[in-house]
Design a protein that fits this description.
The complex is a heterodimer of chains A (126) and B (330). Chain A is mainly α and 126 residues long. Chain A is built from five helices and two strands, in the order ααββααα. A two-stranded antiparallel ribbon of chain A has the order 1-2. The longest helix of chain A is centred in the first third of the chain and has 24 residues. The radius of gyration of chain A is 22 Å and the shape is elongated. The longest helix of chain B is centred in the N-terminal third of the chain and has 28 residues. In chain B, α1 packs across α11. The chains are: A mainly alpha (126), B mainly alpha (330). At the A-B interface, α1, α2 and α4 of A face α2, α6 and α10 of B. Bound molecules: protoporphyrin IX containing FE (HEM). The site of protoporphyrin IX containing FE has 24 residues of chain B, from α5, α7, α9, α10 and α11. Protoporphyrin IX containing FE binds next to α5, α7, α9, α10 and α11 of chain B.
């Protein structure tokens, strides 16, 4: 083999890059499995959980536009109840701890929603 | 024909996981076994190619005429285009790998006024290539949020910059738009220009279509057909920590995405894509042009039995003398 030193160095760097996630995760303490979520206090979400898992951001995005641009502040839930389209007042009234519900998945997936740049988290105010 | 063949192969690669995961429920095969096999083929295949290249001697420096060679002290050498030192070579390699310096020289020829052959600068291939490669790198680097826990800050910073304009929700990544635009351009470039289409092989169309398939399926999953990405992270964390699991409820789009990525990994070492490693072995890029300073001996030279003229004369002196032939030594 010619230039063995350089070639082997290149191979070592390549293998280190490919296996990096293994070392990183073995070295870290954090759990590998999906986070546990706190049970909600209410009995009925605005949509079913399966749909919400993928689409809650679409729902909130639509709500924002409807409230802010069209002034439509209320909607009728699946059980016929009239509710306010509000992240802080409606969603967080059942999912009472943002840090034990929203943040768990968001942190796990490295998602940093800009909602919280403006919306205050109710508990933090008190 | 080449194009048609590539399209058919891509269609099959998409249909396989679609049918076999969607209808036959072979999630473990497509979620665990195929990715592991693909990674093994990728690593072993690439190492084999590299070791094969490393065994080939490159005896002489191949000077390219991109810049003034180092010669007399009062002639200014071009240190990056025609380097004579290791440092210069490193500079040239960096320019090549990071900015595609050679491709920047690309020209196109054209007949003007009927018969005047003219060469013009053509930067489109360079721009499209650079746009694709850089966004590909960023997309892959951002994907480390699926493979690392906790997610390191540099990945979050990259995500933040990539979603700078906060368009839509989930926020549209700028790199997603650029990578698909660049790949689409690179693909149609081969089809629209008749001369290029004439020299394009299946090995040219297929990788572009495969990468396009990967990018589009990823975009599809993020913005349109939402799936349970927390479950996907469990799957990918299981893969990289060697404890594979396939959680319930992962949409079939993900399996298509993952299968196309696996196909890319398997295809990589045996196709032109292996230039990722090959560029480091390019003799016109990685050797300093120091032929005038240093003697380079051909490593495959072996001792050749020679018969010099002196020896020849010694052997036949008498005969030559008799024939009155001129001699160097009497
Ligand atoms: C060559 C490698 C890959 C390329 C080029 C690629 C490309 C993409 C692109 C362009 C997107 C759109 C969103 C974004 O840019 O983040 C995407 C999304 C996604 N990719 Fe990949 N991908 C690759 C490998 C993988 C692998 C190995 C996995 C998992 C094991 C994966 C899982 C996902 C998931 C789950 C999404 C959806 C993200 C979301 O919903 O936010 N990808 N991919």
């Amino acid at each position: 083999m010619y230039d063995a030193g350089k070639v082997i160095l290149g191979i070592v760097v390549f293998l280190a890059l490919v296996t990096f996630p293994l070392w990183y995760n073995l070295a870290g303490e954090a759990s590998v499995t999906a986070p546990e979520l706190e049970k909600a206090e209410g009995s009925q979400c605005v949509e079913d959980a399966e749909w919400m898992r993928g689409h809650h951001m679409d729902l909130l995005d639509d709500w924002r536009d409807e409230v802010v641009r069209d002034g439509e502040r209320y909607f009728v839930g699946p059980d016929g109840q009239r509710m306010e389209k509000s992240l802080s007042n409606t969603c967080l009234s059942c999912h009472v701890n943002k840090d034990k519900f929203c943040d768990r998945c968001h942190n796990y997936m490295s998602v940093d929603p800009y909602c919280w740049d403006c919306h205050v988290i109710p508990k933090e105010v008190m | 024909m080449n194009l048609f063949f590539s399209l058919v192969v891509i269609a099959v690669l998409i249909a396989l996981p679609w049918v076999l995961v969607g209808a036959a429920g072979l999630d473990y095969l497509f979620g665990v076994i195929v990715p592991y096999v693909a990674l093994a083929v990728f690593v072993v295949g690439l190492l084999m190619r590299v070791l094969q290249w490393a065994r080939l001697p490159v005896p002489f420096r191949t000077p390219t005429t991109c810049g003034q060679q180092k010669s007399l002290p009062w002639i200014k050498p071009s240190r990056l285009e025609n380097p004579h030192s290791t440092l210069g070579v490193i500079g040239r390699m960096l320019l090549e790998v990071l900015f595609f310096r050679s491709l920047f020289r690309n020209t196109r020829s054209q007949l003007r006024d009927g018969s005047r052959l003219t060469y013009l600068a053509d930067k489109w291939l360079w721009a499209g290539g650079l746009a694709f490669h850089w966004t590909f790198l960023i997309v892959v680097a951002r994907h480390f949020r699926f493979f690392l826990e906790p997610v390191p800050w540099c990945v979050s910073v990259m995500e933040g910059l990539d979603s700078f304009f906060q368009i839509g929700l989930p926020i549209i990544y700028l790199t997603d738009v650029i990578i698909i635009a660049a790949l689409t351009y690179l693909f149609f470039r081969r089809i629209v220009n008749p001369r290029l289409r004439y020299i394009s092989l299946a090995g040219d169309y297929f990788p572009l279509l495969l990468l396009l398939g990967i990018a589009v399926s990823g975009v599809w999953m993020r913005y349109f057909d939402k799936t349970d990405i927390v479950g996907i992270k469990e799957l990918s964390m299981g893969l990289v920590t060697l404890g594979p699991v396939v959680p319930e409820g992962i949409g079939v789009t993900f399996f298509i995405h993952l299968f196309l990525v696996s196909a890319l990994l398997i295809y990589f070492p045996f196709s032109k894509l292996v230039h990722a490693g090959g560029v480091f072995f390019s003799p016109t890029r990685n050797l300093a042009n120091n032929n005038r300073v240093k003697r380079h001996i051909n490593p495959w030279d072996y001792p050749v039995k020679v018969h010099t003229y002196e020896e020849y004369e010694d052997e036949f002196r008498d005969v030559m003398k008799a024939a009155e032939m001129p001699l160097e030594k009497e």
